Structure of Permease family protein:
Amino acid sequence: MASDNKVRSRIATFFGFERHGTDIKTEVVAGITTFLTMSYIIVVNPAILSEAISIQGYSDGQTFQMLAIATILAAAIGSIVMALYANRPFGLAPGMGLNAYFAFTVVISLGIPWETALAAVFVEGVIFMAMSSVGARRYIIEFFPEPVKFAIGAGIGLFLLLLGLIEINVAVADEATLVSLGNVASDPVALLALAGLAFTIVLYAKGVTGAIIAGIVATAAAGWGLTLAGVVNGGVLTPESLPPVQYDITPLFGAFIGGFGNIDPISFIIVVVTFFFVDFFDTAGTLIGVSQFGNFLDEDGNLPEMEKPLMADAVATTCGAIVGTTTVTTYVESSTGVEEGGRTGLTALVVAVLFLASLVAVPVVAAIPTYASYLGLILVGLIMLQGVTDIKWQRSDWLIPGGLTIVMMPLTASIANGIAAGIISYPLVKAAQGEHDDVHALQWILAVSFALYFYVTAGGVIG
């Protein structure tokens, strides 16, 4: 008993419970809550990355399991660093949006090998670490156009929403209109996915903790139930066969090193820059937003020692690339744990422990059909659309860059294209308004650079 009290006292002292007005029970509950709300990434991230990553000698199911393990390890590492170094109650995991950019834009559209794409993630993480260590964040914020910064989240949300609807066969290709409504009434996948989506939305609307992962699991279970009952044939609502258990991630671990040997300088730089900017502002915005719930901000609206959680993000991204997954970022779902009273790094440490514990469920993850996992994309995409409220639509210098950033992402299937369109248009609009002094010289440099990017990618120089 005395030893237990001694341990508790050390934990309280290390995390500063008295200063933050919390205790172990509160922090543990907060950690469990945060994990449940963000655990869907264990299923969704592998579903997205497996579209672009294939490993010779391994089945799609085995690759899926490797990616699930990489996802879990990256999330655990990031959350541990956040807990022990930054002492903040924020959970980290591979970021939604950036995983889609990695798979559908970088690897599939641009034709860049996935190993090279992981190398770009690694470089982005190293750059982020270097800049975080010297407090360079404020310089980036000064020259990145605000309308673009605030529009990125909504644009990614719309992109994810479209990807999700396509995967569940609700949105299909059409020669006349490019996209149209699929034959939902006669498609078992679409019918079950829509029923699962409705169930997930109801749970989310009622404020149920872990609504997304619960919806995914329930939909997958329904698919297996209908198959085993003979209502539909095998392979329609379920995988045709289950892969053998795969815990060896050797083919993924360190694969980024080989990626450095196959680099096109222009495309590689563009990919690194896009990863960096999206990750940077997504993380910074999330940190500020979640910190508001916990009253962590100072009187100027800034998060004290913000470089520490940014460093945790950078370290996790670098380690994530090493184990074989995409950019790791702070999750907005951390706000649920903060609302439960989480105020210190112990909350994040609990998140990390639960991620590691979920390794035992990796074989089960492979049994979840892709359409079920993509329900997470749809709901997360809808949630991210709330970012449009931060845009000052009544001002043309916000309307045009912000609008272009948002619509270009889903319409060109590229997050980079959306950011580029917004960056190019911002100084043009400001100059047309006679507000040249409001445009930083680096903003002009960025605009010209991304105009060159459009010329290169649209002119066939890349790919």
